[in-house]
């Protein structure tokens, strides 16, 4: 049975990846989920899998070398999928040190522990061992012209403390691949959306605020462009890179769904109005009148757009979910999981953790 060590598996993308892997592979794999359960980590994301015999949750911080060494020592880890990261740009602007600590030092700890566990006396690595580092398109900076795209060869030009910390972690992985021939890959993805996303990010924030008749904040003129990737498509891509990707390569994962931020807000409003029943009192609350333009974010990149040509040509992956379909599925999920949203925004999931794991 192949054993996967997933860091940050209680977060948005990590939990969706774990669900996807169990749906695909069932009992033929084992997953160890390591998460520090910071504000964005939520064990309620994994209620459906927590009782599986081939799933283990360990509360640990990736910067804790002793804790990570212990996990490698006690388990024959075959694959590392490294999601764990501080990821919210606004928070990085206010408190950059935490991002450097988790994203840079934490990645160094993960690399060192995996290298020590997998390296053989002759400097080679045990067969089948692989490390996948999950990164972001924000390391490439900003695109100014329509028609331009980020490629794997695009020079790094990060602008926020968050993207700088992710660029630094990418460079560490590259250095380990070059210096030690460490068996790894890097993936750089565009903006994800879908179930279990913490409601400070744009799409769940707008959904939640609109349903409560609260203002819908839009930075600047609202014309910043992002490429949106449905999170399940991302999970599929990560699995395919681990199975089919060439070692030491970087693969860009994009959604072919470029939208201005204001477009996203308007689409969500329209979709909510379509999906809410006429007798639902929230329907009267949802309105474009809630849109409120606020002062632009410091160093706000104008446009991101990924060209996933390489991953399609080499591995056969391409995004399957167009935004108009993905946003309907996402809003439907939030309708069906209103208690989840309430708990996440109130902090009740901390009580759940204490009950489950006696922390």
Lateral strand order in the biggest sheet = 3-2-1-4-5-6-10
How many H/I helical runs? Answer: 12
**Large-scale geometry:** globular
State the order of secondary-structure elements, H for helix, E for strand: EHEEHEHHEHEEHEEHEEHEHHHH
What percent of the residues sit in helical stretches (DSSP H or I)? 40-55%
Structural class: alpha/beta
Q: Into which percentage range does the β-strand content fall?
A: 15-25%
The number of distinct β-strands equals 12
Descriptive tags:
three-stranded mixed beta sheet, 359 residues
Task: Report on this structure.
The protein is 42% helix and 16% strand. With 359 residues, it is of the alpha/beta class. The strands form 3 sheets. Strands 3-2-1-4-5-6-10 form a 7-stranded parallel sheet, sandwiched between helices. Helix 1 links the parallel strand 1 and strand 2 (29-35). The mean pLDDT is 92.
List the helices and strands and how they pair.
Blueprint (H helix, E strand, L loop, with lengths): L1 E6 L4 H14 L3 E7 L19 E5 L5 H10 L4 E4 L6 H6 L1 H23 L11 E7 L24 H20 L3 E6 L1 E3 L8 H10 L4 E4 L5 E6 H14 L5 E4 L4 E3 H15 L15 E4 L14 H7 L7 H14 L1 H9 L2 H9 L2
Parallel strand pairs: 1-2, 1-4, 2-3, 4-5, 5-6, 6-10, 7-9, 8-12
Antiparallel strand pairs: 9-11
């Amino acid at each position: 049975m192949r054993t996967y060590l997933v860091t940050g598996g209680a977060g948005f993308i990590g939990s969706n990846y774990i669900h996807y892997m169990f749906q695909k592979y069932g009992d033929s794999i084992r997953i160890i989920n390591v998460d520090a359960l910071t504000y964005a980590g939520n064990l309620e994301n994994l209620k459906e899998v927590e009782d599986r015999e081939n799933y283990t949750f360990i509360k640990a911080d990736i910067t804790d070398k002793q804790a990570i060494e212990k996990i490698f020592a006690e388990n024959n880890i075959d694959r590392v999928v490294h999601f764990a990261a501080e990821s919210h740009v606004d928070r990085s602007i206010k408190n950059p040190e935490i991002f450097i600590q988790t994203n840079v030092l934490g990645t160094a700890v993960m690399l060192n522990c995996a290298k020590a566990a997998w390296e053989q006396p002759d400097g080679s690595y045990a067969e089948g061992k692989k490390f996948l580092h999950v990164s972001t398109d924000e390391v490439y900076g900003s695109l100014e012209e329509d028609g331009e795209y980020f490629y794997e060869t695009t020079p790094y030009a990060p602008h926020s403390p968050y993207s700088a910390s992710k660029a630094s972690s990418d460079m560490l992985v590259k250095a380990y691949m070059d210096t030690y021939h460490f068996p790894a890959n890097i993936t750089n993805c565009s903006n994800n959306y879908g179930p279990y996303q913490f409601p400070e990010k744009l799409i769940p924030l707008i959904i939640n605020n609109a349903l409560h008749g609260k203002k819908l904040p839009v930075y600047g003129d609202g014309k910043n462009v992002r490429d949106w990737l449905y999170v399940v498509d991302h999970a599929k891509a990560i699995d395919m890179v681990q199975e089919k990707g060439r070692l030491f390569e970087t693969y860009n994962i994009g959604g072919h769904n470029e939208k201005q931020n204001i477009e996203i807000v308007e689409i969500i409003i329209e979709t909510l109005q379509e999906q809410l029943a006429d007798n639902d009192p929230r329907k009267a609350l949802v309105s474009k009148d809630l849109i409120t333009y606020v002062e632009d974010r410091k160093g706000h990149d104008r446009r991101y757009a990924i060209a996933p040509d390489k991953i399609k040509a080499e591995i056969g992956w391409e995004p399957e979910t167009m935004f108009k379909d993905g946003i309907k599925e996402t809003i439907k999920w939030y309708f069906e999981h209103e208690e989840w949203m309430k708990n996440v925004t109130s902090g009740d999931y901390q009580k759940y953790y204490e009950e489950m794991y006696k922390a």
